[in-house]
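With this grant's support, we have settled on a layout for protein records. An illustrative entry appears below exactly as we store it:
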Amino acid sequence: MMVIRRMVDRHRAYTAIFLPGEEPRIFPTSEHDHARILQIFKQDRLHPDIVNDFSEFDFTAKGPSPGSTGKTP
């Protein structure tokens, strides 16, 4: 299974690609480049027959909207 993560330090942002049995590949990328990498490797949204963060975790559940307190009126 491939794992793709965004890593950010104080000066630069990186994309890290992890494959079992291989050394991690970490390289500088922009937000656009990172989003394209996720799209190419089908990690950007829920896809049929693809195991990714969207299938493993319930990212479809809608949380509180930005600026709300999370409380119901």
